[in-house]
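Please go through the sequence line and token line underneath and see whether the fold suits the sequence. See right below:
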Amino acid sequence: MSKKYIDRPLASKTDWKRVETMADNDIQFDEDSPQTTPDDWLKAVVHTGFKLPRKKTQIALRLDNDVLTWFKAQGPGYQTRINAILKAYKDAHEKSGKADV
């Protein structure tokens, strides 16, 4: 991870210095944030339907320089965006019955 992301302060309205000095007994619980016990966590259940991200296959892909430059200019995540566009193209062709290119 590059240093610019590590050093950038998070945009937060929370007074973290005050929170860090609080003792556990100072925390006020309510119906939106109830106090939990270790037994509560032992009973915790992972909800079904949670899908783990599919593992990606690493390849070398040759792109025109102007195409790659444009995607990189969009910022971090350009490879994910390229993948999303290729997946949408594939899905559209499968729906239309034009799976063979």
